[in-house]
């Protein structure tokens, strides 16, 4: 995979006169695992909200595979291949793991194919289970899963929808050390077949799993580069690491 998948140009978002995003350029290539970091209020979630159609920008463009996303409805953007998780989990607790995955997969499928689906789970669901390692938990209700397992299920639900771009908002928040490592390995695995943008704060986590990092600060791109470049940049140390 190569070429530009997402191209954000001169983007600004204004809330009641306050510029939450202020002239941001942000380009992500096919197959990248990009981390988006920055202090609270930097504009990370707002940027993802614009890409996914939740927030309309005051100006600027968002191109995904060359198509302008600005002004499109959220569900249209999902159908175009952009999937997203939120900080709060959205799994259906009474349904089993495999039912959750199946439901997510069916959102991108025409109704006539649902009857056929009864004969067994689709290839997309099989693939989502294999990637997330949820096979062993397939028959468990999602309500009994640990916090980490729920996050993996939610990522699996996204994968089952076969997106080309995944946007993950702090997927390791609240996870144990072991769960964080598993999630990091999962992100690397997913990035083999997808383009992934992850909002994450933890520098140790970034050091282990990130390749390219974009640092936002006060609605602007402060620095962009490899983890080492970003960590050693004095501007980042000042605003982000607090040194
Ligand atoms: P981050 O995700 O980096 O913590 P956000 O994108 O959530 O930052 O927020 C960026 C800024 O925009 C913050 O100052 C926040 O208070 C403000 N903001 C975000 N959403 C809204 C909104 N719906 N209305 C008004 N201000 C908002």
Automatic annotation (TrEMBL):
| Residue stretches in coiled coil | none
Q: Does the keyword ATP-binding apply?
A: yes
- Which residues of the entire protein appear here: the answer is 1 to 243 of 286
Ranges for domain ABC transporter? 6-243
Show the GO MF annotations. ATP binding
Species name: Sphaerisporangium corydalis
What's the superkingdom here? Bacteria
* Key words, A-Z: ATP-binding, Nucleotide-binding, Transport
Q: Give the gene that encodes this protein.
A: urtD
| Keyword Nucleotide-binding in annotation | yes
Protein's UniProt name: Urea ABC transporter ATP-binding protein UrtD
């Amino acid at each position: 995979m190569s070429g530009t998948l997402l191209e954000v140009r001169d983007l600004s978002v204004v809330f009641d006169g306050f510029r939450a995003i202020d002239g941001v350029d942000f380009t992500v290539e096919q197959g990248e695992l990009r981390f988006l970091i920055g202090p609270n209020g930097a504009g990370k979630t707002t940027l993802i909200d614009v890409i996914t159609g939740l927030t309309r920008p005051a100006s600027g463009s968002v191109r995904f595979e060359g198509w302008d996303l600005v002004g499109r409805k959220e569900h249209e953007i999902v159908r175009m291949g952009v999937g997203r998780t939120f900080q709060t989990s959205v799994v259906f607790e009474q349904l089993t793991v495999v039912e959750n995955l199946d439901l997510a997969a069916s959102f991108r499928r025409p109704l006539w194919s649902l009857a056929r689906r009864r004969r067994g789970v689709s290839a997309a669901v099989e693939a989502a289970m294999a990637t997330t390692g949820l096979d062993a938990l397939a028959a468990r209700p999602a309500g009994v899963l640990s916090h980490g397992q729920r996050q993996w299920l939610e990522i699996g639900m996204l994968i089952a929808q076969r997106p080309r771009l995944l946007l993950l908002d702090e997927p390791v928040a609240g996870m144990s050390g072991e769960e964080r490592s598993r999630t990091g390995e999962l992100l690397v695995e997913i990035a083999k077949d997808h383009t992934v943008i992850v909002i994450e704060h933890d520098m140790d986590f970034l050091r282990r799993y990130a390749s390219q990092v974009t640092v936002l600060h006060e609605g602007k791109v402060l620095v962009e580069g490899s983890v080492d470049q970003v960590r050693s940049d004095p501007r980042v140390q000042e605003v982000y690491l607090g040194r």
